[in-house]
Design brief:
Radius of gyration of chain A: 25 Å
Helix content of chain A: 25-40%
CATH topology of the largest domain in chain A: Rossmann fold
Strand order of the largest sheet of chain A: 2-3-1-4-5-6
CATH class of the largest domain in chain B: Alpha Beta
Structural class of chain B: alpha/beta
Oligomer: heterodimer
Number of helices of chain A: 15
Number of helices of chain B: 16
Number of domains of chain A: 2
Largest sheet of chain A: 6 strands, mixed
Shape of chain A: globular
Order of helices and strands of chain A: EHEHHEHEHHEEHEHHEHEHHHEHEEH
Order of helices and strands of chain B: HEHEHHEHEHHEEHEHHEHEHHHEHEEH
CATH topology of the largest domain in chain B: Rossmann fold
CATH superfamily of the largest domain in chain A: Phosphoglycerate mutase-like
Distance between the termini of chain B: 36 Å
Largest interface: A-B, 46 and 47 residues
Number of strands of chain A: 12
Helix content of chain B: 40-55%
Distance between the termini of chain A: 48 Å
Number of strands of chain B: 12
CATH class of the largest domain in chain A: Alpha Beta
Largest sheet of chain B: 6 strands, mixed
CATH architecture of the largest domain in chain A: 3-Layer(aba) Sandwich
Chain lengths: 451, 457
């Protein structure tokens, strides 16, 4: 498939990630972070271009049961309960098969406790029958504080406990965990030595990795080993308004305008007021981000990977000029802004690939401010907020606005802070007419105002 | 002396292997652990090579070397008997000397990572190292290799021990016998890293050449990268074939960069390459190209499925794209000179440097490590970077490595390094190799600048 294809429109990823689809199976007692890991991993894989979907068996159970009464449902001697749970797992696996074999998915994350060897055996057989590779992700944790924090963060708000008060919910949940404990058979170094898995112990203090068989599993392991749950915030913003921004020109490497410099000062004040512990600051290697950071008066690190998207032959042009000189290209870009690559330049898809090490390092870090560019910020934001490839190139990332992202529960809280310094608008929405034959007017319909 | 442009100076202030900003604030001491013939030196050398290539100054310190310098002539395994007090003293002194050199490397030579390659099989020895590191403010990361598969160990001994200076005058059976006794000397007192008692340490345990890994307390970015690297390398025999695309139209005109197709001779080469590959009778060969026409056209002739990597694209010459060297000299004489002054770090305006190239090729290298038989059809600068990785060439040599057109390099890992076989496929091509001229001063004459430009139409 990847062999003799023409470069332009292929979803060409670096390597064929997966020849056969991969089934990732979580393992662990309740409140060990399985769903957190599943969602995060799914988000990451989709962002780097590997179609991934998670299947949470608890969801299936809620759809089947409608009303959750109490932990008694999970008692190992509750025959009726067991029957329903088994059905739910089967139903979920059917959907997995549909996704991987029919819908073109590449990775499915099967999120359930899967705490018995028997259950895992069933899954392995299912995978073998369907030609899926299996990779287990087990989370083992006995730290009561971590578990309690987990329950507070994600269980109290669960549909199961909507009608309970916190104490009731916690008590019930602890009993629920107990129901699984007696029959829990963790992955065993000897008995399960032929399986591919990673065992995560104590929220990432220790990992046991067994039989990684291919590239995607290797990447998954690397990712899992870099994420953490220490509370922190990520601040994203663009450089201050630049001279080329004012002229409505894209790309280039110009310095800050007067208002841009003003923004840098406001940014400094904002950061000071936030009172952040051990803040790291990253910029690209372009003048405008560096000048913005210089104003902060703190050390910063420059990443070439954070440079703005390379617009190739269109560098430093206004949209009007692009329409004049490259009307075809301009239309093609509007047709598929994510995959479109400027001649001698890059696409958003390329950007994502070069930003992947930045994301990996962002995961390792704690409090951090990233001063970057419009397209770059869109890519980073899409990662944190789980935006699709079609939405990504149209995310709103205005100048002089800081986004504060704080991981919470299964997602990310976003606070948008406009720092009160005027600037041009650089956001060009997708115009209605994306046809290559369109008129100049139609093409330029959504170009923001500039000098 | 000409000062580099202030902008460029500032740009180089922060780490230039861009994706990994502050690798290490404090230096890192990597400590190998394991019985003899468990691959410690193999891992040490490979890891050192990788870290240097990605721009982290790293050096390995093999305590066996120090012992050979101290003892001059190796008699037999009795030297390693745990009750041999004299030998124990010497061995301790060697370890201490090596640690002293580690310290000098960090403080005087700006090293960032040191790999301390020795058995370090006792808790006591490891404690000495830990307290040494603590005192000096170094981070410590242990790499323990555990293997009890007799076949692997025997293979290991054959590959690297027979050729060792210790056994240079011995016949194979004698050497094998002695080495096995040597291993036994260590085994009695071997205490592996303890997952309970040593839970505060940072380490990775590698079981059975990578079938299983136990990773504990990764502290920082560099340790995370090291773990990722170690988990991707393997020892399965295989070969890596590196070749440039066939001669291109722009090559003929002496123009750099661009995205032209193959010349007639280039097409001939593509066919010759296909024939060569067939003759090599390789199992499961993967073929990789860049996204540029000339590599794709070359791979097409080979007739097997190939994968395209944008990361394998030729170095972006920015404003100099598609120019001849004469035109570069005419239009950008200062840039031309700056490039000759520091070809590795020099970045074309709106383009890339070799240093940038290495950074973007890192995922390619990582995947090459995972793979088995691979043919990479790429470009001159790209091939120089890849070759430098496999052959452990430093940054100043890298941009001048010879990678002529129409020549396939076959790299086969053996022992601690890489065997290289060069195959010129007998199709003439222009020479695209420009040596560093004698005069690199920005005030030089055009003549001097163009002194080493190869011929073209």
């Amino acid at each position: 498939m990847r062999g003799s294809c023409h470069p332009k429109n292929t979803r060409d990823r670096a390597v064929c990630m997966t020849n056969c689809p991969t089934l990732i199976v979580t393992v662990g007692l309740p409140a060990r972070g399985k769903t957190y890991i599943s969602k995060k991993l799914t988000r990451y894989l989709n962002w780097i271009g590997v179609p991934t979907k998670e299947f949470n068996v608890g969801q299936y159970r809620r759809e089947c049961l409608k009303i959750y009464k109490s932990f008694e449902f999970f008692r190992p001697d509750n025959e009726e309960g067991l029957k329903i749970r088994r059905q739910c797992a089967t139903s979920a696996l059917n959907d997995v098969r549909q996704y991987l074999s029919v819908e073109g998915g590449q990775v499915a994350v099967f999120d359930a406790t899967n705490t018995t060897r028997e259950r895992r055996g069933t899954i392995v057989k299912f995978a073998e029958q369907n030609g899926f590779k299996v990779f287990f992700v087990e989370s083992v944790c006995e730290d009561p504080e971590v578990i309690a924090q987990n329950i507070v963060q994600v269980k109290l708000g669960s549909p199961d406990y909507i009608h309970c008060n916190s104490e009731e919910a916690i008590e019930d949940f602890m009993k629920r965990i107990k129901c699984y404990e007696s029959s829990y058979q963790p992955l065993d170094e000897v008995l399960d030595r032929d399986l591919s898995y990673i065992k995560i112990m104590d929220v990432g203090r220790r990992y046991l990795v067994n039989r990684v068989v291919d590239h995607i599993q290797s990447r998954i392991v690397y990712y899992l080993m870099n994420i953490h749950i220490t509370p922190r915030s990520i601040y994203l913003c663009r450089h201050g308004e630049s001279d080329l921004n004012i002229k409505g020109r894209i790309g280039g490497d110009s310095g800050l305008s007067a208002r841009g410099k003003e923004f840098a000062k406001h940014l400094r004040k904002f950061i000071q007021e936030q009172n952040i512990k051990d803040l790291k600051v990253w910029t690209s290697q372009m003048k405008r981000t560096i000048q913005t950071a210089e104003c902060l008066g703190a050390p910063y690190e420059q990443w070439k990977s954070l440079n703005e998207i390379d617009a190739g032959v269109c560098e430093e042009m206004m949209y009007e000029e692009i329409q004049e000189h490259y009307p075809l290209e301009f239309a093609l870009r509007d047709q598929d802004k994510y995959r479109y690559r400027y001649p001698k330049g890059e696409s958003y898809e390329d950007l994502v690939q070069r930003l992947e090490p930045v994301i990996m390092e962002l995961e390792r870090q704690e409090n951090i401010l990233v001063i970057c560019h419009q397209a770059v910020m869109r890519c980073l934001l899409a990662y944190f907020l789980d935006k699709t490839a079609d939405e990504l190139p149209y995310l709103n990332c205005p100048l002089h606005t800081v986004l504060k992202l704080t991981p919470v529960a299964y997602g990310c809280k976003v606070e948008s802070v406009y720092l009160g310094v005027d600037s041009v608008n650089t956001h060009r929405d997708r115009p209605e007419n994306v046809n290559v034959q369109r008129s100049t007017e139609d093409a330029l319909q959504t170009v923001p105002a500039h000098f | 002396m000409e000062f580099p442009h202030p902008e460029r100076m500032r740009l180089r202030r922060c780490d230039s292997a861009a994706s990994v900003p502050q690798f290490c604030n404090s230096p890192t001491l990597i400590v190998m652990v394991g019985l003899p013939a468990r691959g410690k030196t193999y891992i040490s050398k490979k890891l050192t090579r990788y870290l240097n290539w990605i721009g982290v100054p790293t050096k390995m310190f093999n305590v066996g070397q120090y012992r050979r310098e101290a003892v001059k002539i190796y008699k037999n395994f009795e030297f390693f008997k745990p009750d041999n007090e004299e030998a124990m003293r010497i061995r301790k002194a060697c370890a201490a000397a090596a640690l002293k050199d580690v310290s000098a490397y960090f403080t005087k030579e700006q090293g960032q990572v040191a790999v301390f390659d020795a058995t370090n099989t006792t808790k006591e020895r490891r404690a000495v190292i830990i307290s040494f590191a603590k005192e000096k403010g170094y981070k410590v990361f242990f790499i323990e290799s555990i293997c009890d598969n007799p076949e692997i160990i025997a293979e290991n001994i054959k590959q690297v021990k027979f050729g060792s200076p210790d056994y240079v005058d011995r016949d194979i059976d004698e050497a094998m016998e002695d080495f096995i006794q040597r291993i036994e000397c260590y085994r009695a007192n071997y205490i592996p890293i303890d997952d309970e008692k040593d839970r505060k340490l940072s380490y990775i345990k590698i079981f059975d050449v990578g079938s299983t890994y136990l990773v504990n307390r990764v502290q920082d970015h560099i340790q995370s990268r090291i773990v990722y690297y170690l988990m991707n390398i393997h020892v399965t025999p295989r070969s890596i074939y590196l070749s440039r695309h066939g001669e291109s139209e722009l090559n003929l005109l002496g123009r750099i960069g661009g995205d032209s197709g193959l010349s007639p001779r280039g097409l001939k080469y593509a066919n010759a390459l296909a024939a060569f590959i067939r003759s090599q009778k390789i199992t499961d060969l993967k073929v990789w190209t860049s996204h540029m026409k000339r590599t794709i056209q070359t791979a097409e002739a080979v007739g097997v499925q190939y994968e395209q990597w944008k990361a394998l694209n030729e170095i972006d010459a920015g404003v100099c794209e598609e120019l001849t060297y004469e035109e570069i000299q005419e239009n950008f004489p200062e840039e031309f000179a700056l490039r000759d002054q520091d070809k590795y770090r020099y970045r074309y305006p709106k383009g890339e440097s070799y240093e940038d190239l290495v950074h973007r090729l890192e995922p390619v290298i990582m995947e090459l490590e995972r793979q088995e038989n691979v043919l990479v059809v790429c470009h001159q600068a790209v091939m120089r970077c890849l070759l430098a990785y496999f052959l452990d060439k430093p940054a100043d040599e890298l941009p001048y490595l010879r990678c002529p057109l129409h020549t396939v390099l076959k790299l086969t890992p053996i022992a601690y390094g890489c065997k290289v076989e060069s195959f010129f496929l007998n199709i003439e091509a222009v020479n695209t190799h420009r040596e560093r001229p004698v005069n690199v001063n920005i005030n030089r004459d055009p003549d001097e600048a163009l002194q080493t430009v190869p011929d073209h139409i």
